[in-house]
Write a structure and sequence with these properties.
Radius of gyration: 25 Å
CATH architecture of the largest domain: Beta Barrel
CATH class of the largest domain: Mainly Beta
Order of helices and strands: HEEEEEEEEEEEE
Length: 221
């Protein structure tokens, strides 16, 4: 019985050793990390652009967000990656008039998919250019108005009102982004710019879309 247990233990250790050797060999075949991940916080100046009637108007929003991303290598010899992620962004615009204040609020859930390239430097700095597509979902887009000297709020849900006849306000939008991440050890700073492909609001007279600049900092793993 002891002999059988000894043989089984030796087989187990042999299989375990082969497994770890295979894993080590697989990782050694890459000249670069096979995986990259980040968790970050961001500040986003957002320009809500309205076009129509031969005019273009811009409304500035302050946005703050949290993000998580993963990227996996697609080549053993070249540091090309395919990445995806999730994020949440809250943005506001404050408009004050005599005796009244209106705050436009929106909450956006973001799902980016992108291609990345990892560039190593001689100063332990890693530069990662990236290009991708963003899918955005807005569960909240409203205007909260208050009168001076009153605590009563008037809330207007932008998805429940008809602003213009035959107009449509999208909950789901899409855009293209281009950016670069600058990483030192486990810390990074990222700058990106998002261009709209599908806008927020469409009507016979007006189209509204966002141009977003994102400055993100956080932890890379």
């Amino acid at each position: 019985m002891k002999l059988i247990k000894t043989i089984q233990m030796k087989r187990f250790l042999l299989i375990l050793g082969v497994f770890f050797a295979a894993v080590s060999t697989a990782h050694a075949q890459y000249d670069h990390p096979s995986f990259m991940g980040t968790v970050g916080v961001s500040y986003s100046p957002i320009f809500n652009v309205s076009t129509g009637g031969g005019q273009k108007e811009r409304t500035f929003f302050n946005g703050f967000g949290l993000s998580w991303s993963n990227a996996h290598t697609v080549s053993r010899n070249k540091p090309f990656y395919v990445g995806y992620g999730l994020g949440v962004q809250y943005a506001t615009h404050v408009q004050k008039e005599e005796g009244a204040k209106a705050v436009t609020q929106n909450l956006c859930l973001k799902a980016p998919v992108e291609a990345l390239y990892r560039v190593e430097t001689d100063f332990d700095l890693v530069i990662i250019p990236r290009l991708g597509v963003d899918i955005n979902y807005y569960p909240l887009f409203r205007v909260v108005s208050t009168m001076e000297g009153s605590d009563k709020e008037s809330i207007l849900d932008m998805y429940s009102v008809e602003i213009e006849e035959h107009a449509h306000m999208n909950r789901v939008t899409a855009g293209l982004h281009v950016g670069a991440r600058f990483q030192l050890d486990h810390f990074f700073v990222d700058l990106s710019y998002e261009l709209p492909a599908v806008g927020l609001y469409y009507s016979k007279l007006y189209t509204v879309y966002d141009r977003q600049l994102h400055l993100t900092a956080g932890f890379a793993f």
